[in-house]
Design brief:
alpha/beta; Ubiquitin-like (UB roll); six-stranded mixed beta sheet; 31 strands; disordered N terminus
Length: 677
């Protein structure tokens, strides 16, 4: 029985939903879920109000709420009923205070809270607070329906009756149906006794039907890199990553870098078909591996999003990359590509879909679109620089007002290639380096060993030193500069040889011995030059964009990609990979391309958003810009000829230089051209 004053003169109860603040009046006996739908409140449901899925859980807020003019009391909702008890006992225990909105009736004025896990458009909070959370609103949604059995007096095909149930129960209009669904539709309806779960893609396409009730659908985000491929399997309703898998890109056997793979196609007509088959087999294997890890069948994966650089993008789709190997670097397609997963032979559900993010321009691909979607510089007021460092550095600069992009040919040095003792990031590779500026003795850490080389646990942890990877070569060259072993021109100086056995003659130049053992790891003059060339190309590309945008400083720098994830940003600044910026505003973005693919998977609105955004990005072609060479020459210096960041000088460079000068003969004799002294 309702308490006195629990509803208005009209006999309707006042219902207020939080956190949305939406409110309205409803007759006694109205279900909470029905009231929420009438008000457009974000309250989830897959089973259509049958008390099966448990997605519509709500909590009544009890007490006086003067702000809303409501007294919300416990007896203003119906008592805990048999449907809730059945769900609690047989499916999942309901937490104290939780009610099922589909079976709980409104009996008086109430304030109803919709928890985040009961919202359709929930958010997956990301660890980096400066980047917007992922809004979960997938393209594929599940709907549980009861279909009217066939009747001789009202003839209608099974599909038409499925369409009617979707329209009446879920408001889904004008559906289309895959042939693969039609092939099994009648069997599925009858085995499910006319109660089935339907997967609808994009609010219109029926891509799957299963007998009975199911409330979980899965999708995968795939980053197709030139070196590695990574796949992340997500539960679409929660956004949770349930499994991940990664592998080397098998196309490496056709060429280590992108241009060598293009050359392979040029010299072997039809070679693109070989590489396409190889990468599709690899992606298929990763998706099946991730499904096995999550304990599901690959057929439960209904949606896949993919990113990759332009050449990987073309080879994934079975397109020839030849035109990307020569000016004007024309893409076969730059728009987003929607297709069935079966067209890529991924071995998933017959109705599964695939979405390939758009490319920006010739050498700025779908992976950059993923980075842009993840980092969202187009939503910010400050000037952002986002760099995805690889064999080609893909650079995006700008803000909500204007954005520019370029690709700069850094070469493979940042990945450990073209370095005398370089190797890919693998166990045994040196990844962290510190050099004492007085004794010039190094200490280092290798992948797979948490101890530093001068700690007792280093040898005990096992694992031989096998070489040096990209982050390691960056750190050792920067440390050599800070210790006075290398001057601003990148020359390894002989001055420290008298006080350290680490500086040795190497033909007509000198080298620094980082490690002695079964494998001697030394940094040669050619190694330093390779890093100078790579970082100069990167810096020159950034400066071109800054010139075009008309800015001298950037407010925020994000380093993306595998290299960007592992490098200490301090050393990126010391070497001058990036322009002047306060050190605390230079951060790693991790695998931003993969994160962008996951955003596109989980939030349907992200797809048109990134498609619109890439179309307004201005592309700058470094190969034809006359200023590129001038910037490149200036950037060969360490950190670079126009370096002027006082924060870094105060915090890092000056203390190291002071120690180095106090350490011995010859260190102070090097030439000084930069402004950091």
């Amino acid at each position: 029985m309702m308490t006195e004053g629990s509803h208005s003169r009209s006999g309707a109860a006042q219902v207020v939903f939080t956190p949305s603040g939406r409110r309205g009046r409803f007759p006694a006996g109205t279900k909470i879920l029905d009231a929420a739908r009438a008000l457009g409140v974000d309250l989830d449901s897959v089973c259509g109000g049958r008390g099966i899925c448990g997605r519509c859980q709500v909590v009544q807020s009890i007490g006086e709420f003067p702000k809303h003019g409501v007294a919300s009391r416990a007896d203003h909702l119906s008592a805990f009923g048999p449907i809730e008890q059945r769900y609690h006992d047989k499916r999942a225990p309901l937490a104290p205070g939780r009610r099922l909105g589909c079976s709980t009736e409104i009996r008086g004025d109430v304030v109803i809270d919709v928890p985040p896990d009961s919202q359709v458009h929930r958010q997956v909070v990301r660890k980096r607070a400066e980047v917007h959370a992922i809004r979960v609103d997938p393209v594929v949604r599940l709907h549980f329906i009861e279909v009217t059995p066939p009747d001789m007096h009202e003839p209608a095909g099974d599909l038409r009756r499925v369409e009617a149930a979707l329209r009446e129960e879920w408001g889904v209009e004008g559906v289309r149906c895959d042939l693969a669904v039609l092939e099994t539709l009648q069997t599925t309806l009858r085995s499910g006794e006319w109660r089935v779960t339907v997967a609808v893609h994009g609010g219109r396409d029926v891509i799957g039907v299963w007998p009975g009730f199911r409330d979980k659908a899965y999708g995968a985000a795939v980053d197709v890199g030139s070196t590695t491929i990574a796949a992340h399997l997500c539960e679409l309703s929660s956004g949770e990553v349930v499994a991940s898998a990664g592998a080397m890109n098998p196309q490496i056997r056709f060429g280590e870098d992108l241009m060598s793979r293009v050359s392979y196609v040029m010299m072997h007509p039809g070679g693109e078909r070989e590489m396409t088959a190889a990468v599709r087999v690899a992606i298929r294997g990763l998706l099946h591996e991730a499904a096995a890890e999550a304990g599901i069948a690959p057929e439960e994966i209904l949606d896949v999003t993919l990113v990759g650089n332009p050449i990987m993008h073309h080879l994934l789709l079975g397109l020839s990359p030849v035109e990307l190997g020569q000016a004007p670097f024309a893409l076969a397609v730059d728009a987003a590509v929607n297709l069935t997963a079966g067209a890529l032979d991924l071995g998933l559900h017959p109705g599964a879909r695939a979405y390939v993010l758009p490319c920006v321009a010739g050498h700025v691909g779908a992976d950059t679109a993923g980075v842009i979607l993840s980092e969202a510089p187009y939503l910010r007021d400050e000037i952002n620089l986002v760099v995805d460092v690889g064999t080609n550095a893909e650079i995006v600069l700008g803000s909500r007002e204007r954005m520019l992009a370029a690709s700069s040919p850094t070469g493979p040095a940042f990945e450990g290639a073209q370095i005398s003792c370089g190797q890919r990031a693998a166990p045994g590779a040196v990844e962290r380096v510190r050099i004492d500026p007085i004794t010039l003795e190094p200490r280092y850490r290798v992948i797979g060993n948490e101890a530093w080389s001068d700690e007792p646990g280093f040898a005990a942890a096992g694992g031989a030193v096998t070489g040096i990877c990209g982050s390691g070569i960056i750190e050792v060259v920067a440390e050599m500069y800070l210790a006075g072993i290398v001057d601003e021109d990148g020359v390894i100086l002989p001055g420290g040889a008298g006080r350290s056995g680490r500086i040795v003659e190497d033909g007509r130049t000198f080298a620094y011995v980082l490690h002695r053992g079964d494998v001697e790891v030394r940094v040669t003059q050619n190694d330093v030059r390779a890093i100078q060339l790579a970082k100069a190309a990167l810096y020159a590309g950034v400066r071109l964009l800054m010139d075009r945008l008309g800015v001298e400083r950037v407010d925020r720098i994000r380093l993306a990609g595998a290299f960007g994830s592992h490098i200490d940003v301090k050393y990126a600044m010391v070497l001058g990979l990036v322009p002047d910026c306060a050190l605390e505003h230079v951060t790693s973005a991790g695998n931003a391309a993969g994160t962008g693919a996951r955003i596109a998977l989980l939030d349907r609105s992200a797809r048109p958003e990134i498609e619109r955004t890439v179309r307004r990005i201005e592309k700058v072609e470094t190969a034809v810009e006359p200023r590129f060479q001038a910037h490149f020459v200036e950037a060969m210096a360490i950190p670079h000829k126009t370096a002027a960041y006082p924060e870094l000088a105060k915090a890092v460079v000056l203390p190291a230089r002071k120690s180095a000068r106090a350490g011995g003969e010859g260190v102070g004799r090097r030439r000084r051209r930069g402004r950091l002294r």
